[in-house]
Amino acid sequence: MTVSKATLAASFNAVAADYAATRPGYPAALYDAVEELAGRPLHGADVLDVGAGTGIGTAPMLARGAQVTAAEPGPGMAAQLRAQLPDVPVVRGSGDALPFTADSFDLVTCAQAWHWTDPARSVPEALRVLRPGGALALWWNVPDGSVDWIAAQERRLQRQWRQDDVTERAGTLIQDIAPSLSPHCRELRWSRTVPLDTHLASLATHSYIATLPADRAAALIEAERAALRDVFGDGPVTEPYVVRLTAVRTPA
Questions:
Q1: pLDDT computed for residue 161 by the predictor
Q2: Of 54, 67, 150, 188, which one has the greatest count of Cβ atoms within 10 A?
Q3: Are strands 130-143 and 90-91 parallel, antiparallel or unpaired?
Q4: What's the pLDDT score for residue 159?
Q5: Are strands 184-194 and 237-249 parallel, antiparallel or unpaired?
Q6: Using CA atoms, how far apart are residues 65 and 250, in angstroms rounded to an integer?
Q7: pLDDT at 218
Q8: In a 10 Å sphere around its CB, with 0-12 CB exposed, 13-18 middle and 19+ buried, how is residue 71 labelled?
């Protein structure tokens, strides 16, 4: 049975607490690269974090001194964000129709969420709310398929990252919509080490598992536990990631 994109996107609300507790963050080098490609520090910048989720990508920008507004369409995710970052204004809205006036922000970011938007709508919307000389930055944590156990897991879950994956095509999509702009792309490798239970709980928050009937999702996770014990035993799991970053600056 095919599950609609809207149903997949909405699935995060039911698993928002586990999402906040178990999903990976991002390395400091990512935010260094965002500052470089944006041509300005995060400190003092007015940032709109689109699809902010539970605030995993938001918190490090706050720590660098940014003034961040979060836009998040999901009620469960937004509630987690408010609980964890109570000083961040949270607006219920999607990247396809931003409820902000033109020229409002220095930087628009989208962490692990741009693939839920329609680029034909979300790119013009981001450019509309950016000030002259502002920047749009999109990024994703992608499991590093060059690592054997990750490649095997992707095959088991039938979740291979295909050649047309949006994380690789974001720059091309932006340029197709706004030909005068020149996107820049970076890849940064990093890893985190977590207990096996944390890895499995994080896996269960992905939409393609969260939308399964509960018994099927539980069986899939337990099968994955058995497969990973063959690799890691009862020890921790080191998760390797490639952060794919695409950023574009608007004319000053």
A1: 44
A2: 54
A3: unpaired
A4: 63
A5: antiparallel
A6: 22
A7: 96
A8: buried
